[in-house]
Amino acid sequence: MARQPIFDQQQRVVAYELLYRSEGNTETSMFRDTAATSEVILNAYTSIVDGGAERRVPAFINLTYDIVVEGSIPELPRKQVVLELLEDAKVDDAFIEGVRNLVQEGYRIALDDFVYSPEYDPLLEMAQIVKVDVMDHTSEELPKLIQRLKPFKVTLLAEKIETHEKLEECIKLGFKLFQGHFLSRPKLITGKKISAGQMVLLQLMQALQNPNAKPEALEELIIRDPVLTYKLLRIVNSAAFSLVRKVESISEAVVLLGIPQVKKWATLIAMSTSTDKPEELTRTLLIRGRMAEQVAVAEKRANFGSYFMA
C-alpha cells in the first residue's frame, strides 16, 4: 500500500490518499479491483488509523462500483475518511442509490478524475469534493469546467500537478486542494501483511448467513484463526468506537459490532486474504491461545474468552 498527500493552498498536508500497490511499485499500479479496495480499507482501519499521520488528517479511500452497490463497506470513522468514487464506475440507478446511502450514513464523497457529463449531476449533488486531472484539460477547458461545477458548491481538487506553473495556475482558477508529483510522489507504506485462513473465513461466512447465529457460536469459529481474531479485536478497539475499556473477548466484540458488521468485515478480510501465511506459525499461535483459554476455564476465571489473546 502507498499513500500520497493532498495539500491546501498554503501547501499544508490536509489529507492522504491511500493507494493499493503490488510488488513494491508506487508509480504504475492502478487501484481498481474490489480485492484491492478491501485490502486498503482493512490496512487503513486496523493499522493506519491507530497511529501516524493518517490519524490526524482524513484518508481518501477509493471505492469500486461493486462495493458501493452491494453496500459492503463496514463502519468507518466518518471524520477520518473520504470515500472516493472511481471515474470508471458505471453511473446507474443502483450506483446512485448506493452513494445516497453512504451520504445518509454520514460519509463524505469525492469524485475521482472528473470529466463532466450530465449523468454525473446526481453524484455532484451529493459529493463534497471533485478531483480534476489537470493534465487531461487544457488551460482553456479548465475555466469552463469550473464554471459548470459552481452550482454544485463542491470543493475542487487539482490532481496531477507536475509543475510549479500548473500549481499557480490552479490556485488562480480557484482550486482549494492539490495533489501531484510536483508536490509529493506516492510513498510506499511498508509492513508485513497478515492474512486470515480461507477455510475459517468460509465457515464463518456460512454461519453468518444464519439469522439466529449466536455470538458464542461465532466466537468458536473466529478463534480458530488467530489472525482473524487479531484483526476483529483491533477493529473493535480502534479509535472509531471510542470505547472506555479494551475489549479482549471475541464474543463481546461480536456483540458490540453486531452480526451485520461482523459479516461485512469478514467479507473484506476474505477478499483481501492471501496464501502466504506460514501454517506452522498459525498452528502454534492457535494452540497457545486455546491452551490459555482452557486453563482460564479450569481455574474458573472470569471472562475466560479474553485469555485466548493473552
From TrEMBL:
Leader peptide range in chain numbering: none
Span of domain HDOD: 194-310
Regions crossing the membrane: none
Domain of life of the organism encoding this protein: Eukaryota
One Pfam short name: EAL
Residue span(s) of domain EAL: 1-200
SMART domains xref list: EAL (SM00052)
PANTHER family in the cross-refs: CYCLIC DI-GMP PHOSPHODIESTERASE CDGJ (PTHR33525:SF4), PTHR33525
Listed name of the protein: Diguanylate phosphodiesterase
Lineage: Eukaryota, Metazoa, Cnidaria, Anthozoa, Hexacorallia
